[in-house]
Structure formats: C-alpha cells, structure tokens
Amino acid sequence: MSAFDNTKPIELDDDLVAVDVSQAPDMTSKARRTLARRLADVICLPQSQVNALERHIAGDLLVEMLREGDRKLREQSARRMASLVDAPTAILRLLMRDEIDIAQYILQDSTAVTDSDLIECAQHASQAHRLAIARRKQVSEVVCDVLVQIGEHDVIEALLRNRGVIFSFSAMDKIVALSRDTTGLIRHILRREELRPSHAYAMFWWSNAAERLEIIQRLAIGRDVLQDMAGDVFAMAAEEGWQDPLARKALQFIERRQRNRAAIDKSPYDSLEDAVAVAAEKGLDRELTQEMSFLSGLKPATGARIFTDMGGEPIAVLCKATGLKRHNIELFWKAQRRSTTTEAGEIHPALERSIYVFDILTVDKAQTLLRYWNWSLTASLTPELIRAIREGSAEGSVDEFSPPSRAAALVFSKFFNK
What we know:
The chain is mostly helical. It has 3 domains: 18-113, no CATH class; 117-208; 225-416, no CATH class. The protein contains 26 helices and no strands. It has helices spanning 30-44, 52-67, 71-82, 89-95, 100-109, 115-124, 127-134, 141-150, 153-161, 169-178, 186-189, 197-203, 209-219, 224-229, 233-239, 245-254, 261-266, 272-282, 286-295, 300-307, 313-322, 327-335, 349-360, 363-378, 383-391, 403-416. Helix 5 (100-109) runs parallel beside helix 7 (127-134). It starts with 29 loop residues before the first helix and ends with a helix.
C-alpha cells in the first residue's frame, strides 16, 4: 500500500476559495468603496512616491473590484484614470469597453491609451464608442484608417470635423468613395488639408453647385512648372514618333494646346465652333458628342461625361479651355435641350453659374481641370474595367496605385448606374 493512500484530503481555508459573487449578498460595501478609492489614490501617486511595480499591482487589484463594482464606482475610476499619463493598461482596457457614459472619459480624454487598444475597442465595441474615439484630441493615421474602414457616417463626419485627426491617403480615398452616396460628407472633406486634386477632381462630379465652385476656386491650378520642366521632352517624343504610350499620355496633359489639330483636319465640321452650332440646332447625339470630344482634344468617354452633366460647370470649363466664347455656353444649353431662362424670363440659375465659372477661370487653369479629367477618366479605362464598373464589381478591378484607375471607377460607376 502506498504511503499516500492514508493521506488526508487537503482542506483549503475558506478565505482562499473563490467566491461566487453572483450568489453573494450586496458586496458594494463601505469597505469596498473605501478600498477602491485608496487603490486609485495609490495609482494616482506621482512616480516619486510609488514605483511602477506597486502601481501595477494596485491596478490589478482595482480591476477585479471594478469588474464587479457598481456603476458609480466605475464612473469615478474612469474620471480619475482619464487624467493619468501612465494609468495601468488593464484598468484602461476594462473601462474603455464599459457603458459609453463611463467609457467616454477614457476614450476621449486619456492620453495613456495606446493605438492598439483603441483599434481593438473600435473593432469590438459599439458605434457610440467609435464616435468617442473619433472625438479625441489626437487620432493617429492607423486608428483613423480602422474607423474609416468600418464606414459609419456619423463617425466619419466626426473625424472630418476633428482637426486633431490625421488622414492617410487611402482613408481619404475611402471617404471620397463614400461621399458619392453620402453627399453630406463633401463639405467636410473640402475643409481637410489632406484633400488632393485627384480626390477633389473626382468628387466634383457628384458635388452640388457651391461645392463645385469651391473645388474650382481652390484646386484649379496652372501647369507652368510642368510645362517648363517638359519643354524639351516634346521634341524627344516627336523624334521617337510618339511610340511610348505612357510618355504620350503624360505629355498630352502637360502641353499648352488644347484642341486637336489632327482631328480638325479629318472632321466633317470646319471647327469646334461649327460643331457646337450644329449641336445647338440638331441636339446632342452620339456622333456629335464624339466629334466635339475629338475636336476638343478629349476622349469620347470624357466628352460624354461633360456633355451630359446637368450642372453646367464642366461645359464652362471646356469652353474656357478650348478658346470658345461665352455665347457658346448657351449653345451647349440648347444642344442639351435645356431652357436658358426661368418662367419669369430671367436667366436660368444653372446657366448663370456656368457663365460665372467661365469668367473666373483662366485658360490655363481650365485646361488643367479638363486635361486631368480626360487623363484620369480614360488613361486606365480598359474594357475589363468598364465591364466591372457596369457590373458593380469595379472595386476588385482597380489598381490601388493608379490614380486614373481609381478615378474612372469612382466617376463612371456613378455615371453608368444612375
């Protein structure tokens, strides 16, 4: 017989056995509340009075008390922990996932919370928690990316309003794409310093009149530096017979001349002015749209997008860029079979806006807009991408590193499927 067979069972002290709190009477005693406050006091002591190990041990004890503590105790702790620059991580992680009325103190005010903890909270907590994160004084790129990817309108709007947020390029891409269906975001996007021409020129197509005007005034620029830089490259490309398609596309964006001289020689119309006059008389059709596009130095897809736009601003840009006169804007209106006046006999507001855009733009800035639209909308518009756009599956076909590919998917998915 083994010597161990006669060993008595080990009896544990009741004080060492875990208590089933759910079956216990009300444990929120005066002692508990006092002890919790004292532990919080220890955690809040300056580093000269408590070392890091003691602080963390006190934090571990307080976490267990808070898990079963009443709401008032948790809220008091959240208020105190929010002001500490080195609060114990375990307490912060617990409190930031609590009810939002408690968690908000940590999520909005605590500087001790790490990005990884904020990201975990954003992914697993409620929209109210994500909204609190979006309102922090500082929100890093990585945290912002996670919030944007979730795609909640209220959270994204809060991020856009917050000057302490840093947006990555990909986050702005996502937000611009969301703005197609949530147009209320556009006015906030336009206030962000992270906004780039590639974003604004694409967003232009689904912006309202005031937002379009702001894009034109703020982001329409000249190309003097590019033209000076590439002055001798045109001759090089001509000597090579314009064989390099990428160089040709880029130089077409940079060059000063807008109208296509070769297209004029082949056209059944004497000039772009002649084609516009015919369109005003006959109305727009596929043949005239293509012909005016070629004469204007545009691809037919870009021309179709401009000539079918009911805002009028793209027509003004085209007229200014190609050297057409102001009265041609009204001819385009007639080609679209639109009224140029209101029932009261006054000039139509949209036509008036179009003329105003024509007046404030310089030729060079108008050409920049027109050339960028043409380049960005058609440079990567392959048959495969067109098919994906029509089928609503363009996102998987877009080259994330190609501005034209992204722009074409954004603009034409709205255009083809409206």
